[in-house]
Amino acid sequence: MAEMAHPSPEHGHESHVPELVHQFETVEQQREAGTLGMWLFLATEVLFFGGMFCSYLIYRSLHPQAFEIGSHLLEVKFGATNTAVLICSSLSMAMAIYSAQTGKSKKTVILFLVITILLGLAFIGVKLYFEWYHDYLEHIVPGFGFQYRPEWGANGPMVQMFMVFYFTMTGVHALHMVVGVGILTALIIMAARDRFSPQYYAPLDISGLYWHFVDIIWIFLFPLLYLVGGRYMSGGR
Amino acid sequence: MSEHIVPVKVYIGVWAGLLVLTGLTTGAAYIDLGVFNTVVALAIAVAKMTLVVLFFMHVKYTPGIPRIVMVAAVFWLAIMMSLMLADELTRHWTPVAHSWGAGVLLPLLPHVLR
Prior knowledge:
The structure holds two protein chains of two kinds.
Chain A: H1 2-5, H2 27-62, H3 64-71, H4 76-101, H5 106-137, H6 156-192, H7 202-226
Helix pairs in contact in A: 2-3, 2-6, 2-7, 3-6, 4-5, 4-7, 5-6, 6-7
Chain B: H1 8-28, H2 36-56, H3 65-88, H4 102-113
Helix pairs in contact in B: 1-2
């Protein structure tokens, strides 16, 4: 074939990258195909989360008062802290990719990936212990001893509905975080085996897209769940 | 078209911007703005998403087809949201005749089948 006889001079070095699979001409083309695939997956994720956001929107527009009461059951300090934690993890993920792009040592790449994992685990830890476990103790987890409070009055069932949205949406989001931690673990193993170079870092690149996307979902969940109707009213914590 | 490498100071700037916006949206929730509390919260969320997408996700430097997929995702989301809301939010505009409700029709079923 023609490309065997005449490898283009400027891409000549890339043909030595062992990760280049045969259906692609260049490593760059291979990376672009991977990026496109990840964006297609993220488009399905937009619609997956979009369905939940849309149901949330409808219930909130029908029962605004109950959603305010429900929102005030959550603690803003934990939501805001976790938002900051995720933003920092996105920065360290971007720095891991940058380190691979610019040919830094594998120790640097692994260091940034480990920081990203630790921040991700910190997020999950805050959710599990400081939020969900305490919600359980306060009897506001639907299906696990949920109890109406007298001060909610007739809003009780729809306050419970808010908590259903809260646990479903943050639960599915946390599941995405757990998957992300698994992906990061695989990346650390690959980095330790010297798989990445300035010519080949596509797995880091597309995993970064996934990680940042999960960050974006939380960027919307935080105001929509924790900051409903403002926190200035009495009853907020 | 080699991959564009985003300088570290851009990443740091975006990170700082995201933290500032998180502080803003949290602070704004404690001020009574009426319906604008939600508007401000969503506007800040969209601003934060734009920062993440453009710089952390490299969309500013990614040409071509992935951009079309992104726009398509937002477009499909808009279709889903607008059609669902067009149903839910306009249901009470034209009251459904009571006689059409299942509560009236179902008890009539035995008479019809007789």
